[in-house]
Structures
1.
Amino acid sequence: MSTTTATAPAAVVDRKAAGASARRRRLLIWLAIAVVASAVLYGVYALLFTGRSVSTDNAYVGAEVAQVTPLVGGPVAAVPAKETQVVHTGDPLVILDDADARIAVAQAEAALGQAERKVRGYAANDTALGGQVAARQADLARAQSDLVRARTDLDRRQNLQGSGAVSGEELTTARNQFSAAQAEVAQAQANLRAAQGQREANATLIEGAPLEQNPEVAAARARLDSAKLALSRTVIRAPMDGVVSKKSVQVGQQVQPGSPLMAVVPIEAAYVDANFKEVQLKKVRIGQPVTLTSDLYGKDVVFHGRVTGLSGGTGSAFSLIPAQNASGNWIKVVQRLPVRIALDPRELAQHPLRVGLSMKAKIDLTNAR
């Protein structure tokens, strides 16, 4: 009786051990099946999808920032633009004191009026000089007539000298009159040439162009235009739509041409520079679509863009202290190349970005426009 009782528990233990061993085998089999299935699925995924895109989180928002600088110097009278203010093209940003510029415009206007009167005087002188030329021509004609008469008288007396009808004194007088007539003609010719020269010199000042195109008038008008341009530049306007940033100008400050006053950031024309590793760029082409997310809006807001170009060099190539790869202690480092990505303007209008914000970019390598 006791032998039968002792054998039963041992059989039960053996059955339980056998069952546990069978469960472990089944578990190991299923685990092996799961591992193999996962490997197969990963292999299929890698075969179908790996290499179809490249991504990076080393990407930042950029824009063609406009530096606002004055083209003329002067004291600042007003600063309508404020930091972070949204401005549009043509909005006044800084207003300079224009008192000196207005005086310069008034002086240039007076100089233009004086030049116009001077040129009109040239035209009046031409009429007067024309009268002088006509008078000198009349004087020459009269002198030539007197010369003909003097020559006739001299010839007559010389012909009568042999017969004794003309005294020596009369002949000498005739000769003197002839010489005087020759001198009068020479003087009249000289006076005519002088009058003609004066008229020609005056004509060169007005010839070939109306009053408005006269060189002296044109030069005076150019100085007036320059003065008006300088006056208009006392109001410094926004060169584009954007947001005012880095404002460093205050009322009363004396500014000089070229000194930076502020920047205008065109956030509606923002782009992304994504710094991809060089090993990721083999299949990247211009026109490929890109999806992007920003740390500002999170994954719920997805931006869409296109690759517009690749930089001409890596970031290290344009650094202030380029890497000395030829040195003996050189260590290879994977380089990154900036890829310019244009964003959808409509998405930017709905979710504005700011320069310098971090982005995540993913380029679809299977599609290119």
2.
Amino acid sequence: MTIKRGLLVGAAIWAGVAALGSAQSEPTVTNATTAVLAAFRSHDVVMLGEMHGNKQEYDWLRDLVANPEFADTVDDIVVEFGNSFYQQTVDRYVSGENVPLKEVQGAWRDTVAAVGPPSPVYSSLYEAVREVNLKRKGKHQMRILCGDPAINWQQIKEGSDIVPFLRTREQVYAEVVEKEAIAKHHHALLVMGAFHFLRHFPARQQFDIEQQLRNAGARTYLIVTGTSTTGTAGEVDRRFDAWRVPSIVVLEVNWVGALPALPVITGGHGPPLANPKLEEAADALLYLGPPTSLSTVEMPQSELAGTPYGTELERRQKLQMSLEK
């Protein structure tokens, strides 16, 4: 695998940021695993707005699923990077059956929106849940639910064939959670890109996943992932420097919640939109560290160049590009 260091670079001190939050109280910074376990004691569904392909986040997520209290409590992990066409195979794999990798890897390799090569961090989470379940034979087992539409890429011949799947991604995700978790009175961890979950975000798609789940009776708690970048030019807030990582802070009535949301969750690369504050966008922030400490894991070229899968990804990309013409 390839790791890119300094995912979010060019950060500099923002001289005026300390004054911005001087009127707000200091936040309570909690160990990330401790905070998630506490959230599940009062909520059915914990939603994690993830940072795509981030090494530090998925290192922590693998540790989280291995925590005995988490494994005892959480029934389902609902992932965006999971093609529901492969759900039955994923169930067998995660439960510990002897399933060849070539049969299950389509779950994370063949999703609708990610036509580029998927980061290995996603397959590592499937592997982590499988390993935990194997060690817990006879005890409560966790299930990975594939939240992306059931697309069969072998049947996709034109760009227009993709459109129905793209348009229903968030609706399908919510329906999976409703049917497989909420209706069964399960506890579920939802993992999806932060922009699908953000509250009060004007550029988000019309379908509101969280509201749909609340309408179905779920008690939801939303955590977004971010760093200490607080300006669109890459400025950082040094008040984060003393925090241990990974940590979670509740965003209500403190200076962290008063920060603009998009720079924090995008490393300063947020689009120039009407920008909600963090406390308006989510319940809590998962802090992974300063921007220069973060890294993205990419699929190695050996799995792409000259391989059938690499050729298939090129075909899918051409189909996607045809939709933009």
3.
Amino acid sequence: MNVYDVFKERGFVEQVSDEAKVRDLLSERVTCYTGFDPTSESLHVGSLVPIMALAHMQRHGHRVIALLGGGTAMIGDPSGKCELRKLMTREEIDENAGGIKIQLERFLDFSDDRAIMLNNADWLLGLNYIEFLRDIGRQFSVNRMLAAETYRQRLETGLNFIEFNYMLLQSYDYLHLYREYGCSLQMGGNDQWGNILAGADLIRRVEQGEAEALTWPLLETSSGAKMGKTEKGAVWLDGGRTSPYDYYQYWINTEDDDVMRFLSIFTFLPMEEIVELSRLEGSEIRKAKEMLAFEATKLNHGEEEAGKARAAARALFSGDSGGDDSAVPTYEIEKARLEDGIPAFILFADAGMAKTRSDARRLISQGGAYINDRRVDVFDEKIAIDSMVDGYILLRAGKKKHIRIKTSE
């Protein structure tokens, strides 16, 4: 099956430069690339669409390039932003690159030149500005650039000149990868459509070569929330920032209307199986959510951690105190504090079950706070050492958010 048809079937395609040409291009082995933002040492769930797209390409025999924007990050992409991004040093970017490479290796095979990870700082930082303007800058029309959605939105709030160069630099990346690696397809989020087309056009102008563009939709949940965002913040791929259990919980709490779409994009399950899962209704839809959570967690954290997270979630969901809940996040508190007793609203806030103590009081007043499956009715009820069962106190907010409290000396 042509990987382009896989993309279409699974919901990866928003815009494409020329559908017939792209499908024909992908009928043979090609080199493609997509970029990743190195502004953190960990990627987050929002980065999974490009990662999964590269993984599908690789599984269909194509060579993939994961390009870290080390050079462009020193400028800042204005796409989708209303203000100038924080500028980073080369040292910060290089440090972040190490963590990102480890995460990409869970999804991509970097052996035998099947996947390549590059940093555009390696060629952008050494550019001669005058030569760049003469050779590359003259190929761009300012009028066309200003008409691009990326820049048009920012003109209302103010566009910094350094950001105005971003399209040129990303286009030059595509040209460089075309020249050095034979890369003929750039993929990215739909907010990058103008930049990707500009790069393909630059290749045609400078090299008289053929290059194509493909973008995927910018995903939101059915309720309009941005992918990978929760009350706690971003859902990270790094297990040290987002535990495998919390990662599993993010996926199992998927809204009903999003389950089939997310199974198609964020797992490698056959579409026939996904269609069958999509037919589940009512309480049965939890089986589909569990499958999504397990498969997504397995890809990122491995099958063992996914199994532990599933076992913990099942134990808590079923109320089985004998189940394996060892993967549930744990918060340590000084034994002396617990011996004295801690007001419930303070304990819930300190353990991260509410953003603030005011939010914790509100949670309790609305009947959404539980200790060892007993609802807390008084916001300042003292929770003490005698509440521990088998060495822990289990806090729950609502139906799905849990944390275990244990003591430290």
4.
Amino acid sequence: MKITLLAENINKKLPFISHAVSSRSQLTSLLNFLIVAKEKELYISATDLEIGIIGKIPASIEEEGEATVPARTILELLGNIPSGKVDIHTEGETLFIETPKTKMQLQTQTTKDFPTLYEKKGAELMQIEKEWLEKELKKVVFAASQDASRPALSGVLIGKEGTGNVVVATDGYRLSLKTLAGKAKKKTDGLEEPIIIPSRILRELMSLKEEGVVGVFVSPENNQVVFSQGDTEVVGRLIEAKFPDYGKIIPADFSTRATFARVEMQTALKTCWVFARETSGIIKLAVGKNKITVSSSTPSVGHGSVEVEAKVEGEENEIAFNGRYLLELFSNLDEEEVVFEMTGPLNAGVFKIAGDNSFLHLIMPIRVQE
């Protein structure tokens, strides 16, 4: 292998690719980058077997070849070369990195042990605008469970609903749902069967700084999904588990409905969290005439309450939630007005975006002893 590239180009790509490098695997290959120079392109890959990332970097290739090198080492070395031309070539089992003032060499390892990320992408299911991913997908992904022992809940469901697709995540205590109707450029007739994508893959995808649309490729026979955007691909395995029947827990009606300013409510929640976080984390919402009173209390710390102006329809009501769930919800919303619906203190509360029927977030209440 013999190539020349710009340091700024490879340093722009390597940090994101390194997200897929295993942090403490006993398999040496999972601690490495696979570097492949072929067909006038330079490809760098990493995987921890849960997620894989492939990045394509502009380069002048004089001689094709491939090598695996310690990811952390080359990341640090190239990071000390902020700009300018870098020559990279291999001689036997050694990789040389040279600039006019710098000469470095690394021992390579066999590429045979590096896992194949995929052989075929599969069918392109849809294309999604990156702006939609950054703004809308974050409203769903955060609700997925972080507990790997419950595989279905650690993923995000994409399935058919009516004439479009729906994206759903739940950890058993809260649920986020977003419909994709009119938001995705479909390439096929849609999903034949729902798929569950690990939430980690989607989180990485949202952090990817590339322009343009994201192509979604699914290969059921390989149980694999590939997200392709610009010069980067994020690869992962679909979760094989039964997703909860979420439709059964979404309330069909409500007895109380309140519309309020998101920022005002978020500030009230942050204020009350100062008291709630010390013990149970419970924050109460009391819906009254033209207002919602947000409150929390901890005997050893104190008590706090904040009134939030609201347009209220229906009955006065009270309900208590895990305050952390409320804060996480509002930190993932950007819209000006939010709608809250409930039927009683022991039934799930539902949060929606005013004027947007494509999203809802459900939180199970906490029973509070008076």
